[in-house]
Amino acid sequence: MAVCVAVIAKENYPLYIRSVPTENELKFHYMVHTSLDVVDEKISAMGKALVDQRELYLGLLYPTEDYKVYGYVTNSRVKFVMVVDSSNTALRDNEIRSMFRKLHSSYTDVMCNPFYNPGDCIQSRAFDSMVTSMMIQVC
Amino acid sequence: MADEALFLLLHNEMVSGVYKSAEQGEVENGRCITKLENMGFRVGQGLIERFTKDTARFKDELDIMKFICKDFWTTVFKKQIDNLRTNHQGIYVLQDNKFRLLTQMSAGKQYLEHASKYLAFTCGLIRGGLSNLGIKSIVTAEVSSMPAWAEGLIIGLVTPTFIEPISSVGWGQCSSSRSLTSSSIC
Prior knowledge:
heterodimer, A: alpha+beta, 3 helices, 35% helix, globular, B: alpha+beta, 40% helix, Trafficking protein particle complex subunit 6B (chain B)
């Protein structure tokens, strides 16, 4: 269950960013922004030993004391960043991978939507509801 | 195969539709070709996103071009590109000896000058796909002769100064200042 989900375009501006709880949103925005550097480092040639070059999933980008940040880059250089609560130890790598695959499928659907111009912010309700299903339920 | 004919006929109608609804002077100044190319661009963007969803990350430009020639072309036109050549400096020549969208036209010189209308969409398709993968490019296509259905696409990457006008007679006359290395993928 994610705390914050962000989709970043290849020019490094956010296409979609959503966090729960909604206060302290700026903190999550800042975390996602700093994670972009780590993503760039991982996909550059320098980080050859760090991550398997052929895979789209980047794994844990960096941990903070409260949160862990995971990353995923598509072939079209669109980055997905997910922030998860550190206290949620039950969340395994496979689950994170499957969450990213779902994100990727939904993003592909948004891309093929004729009413969507590539480069605009994502406003699709279907995408919204898919992300809601992945976030922590706040009661 | 019934599904092939679907897109072929739709594409033909698309081209004639764009030309029929063209305003005064648009046919001459090439606005119609631009419209078709832009259509292909948007379609290419969406298609590439779908096709690269499950493939591994691309290592470099050549990897991307090979993907276009093999997987992308196979999925769209049910065959691979017959020949890929590059000068390793940003120009790639793709050659398709039996281009699906033109096979229905009669052999001979009668309709040769109209062939460019039917290539615009495909050029846009490639340009859109490449742009989504992060490569800015210019795609041009030409048909050398209808019976042989030889179509060469010249893709120049990033710096447009590499593109030189190619005469439509044969490949031997192009780019005399630079040699094209040939690497066919089969």
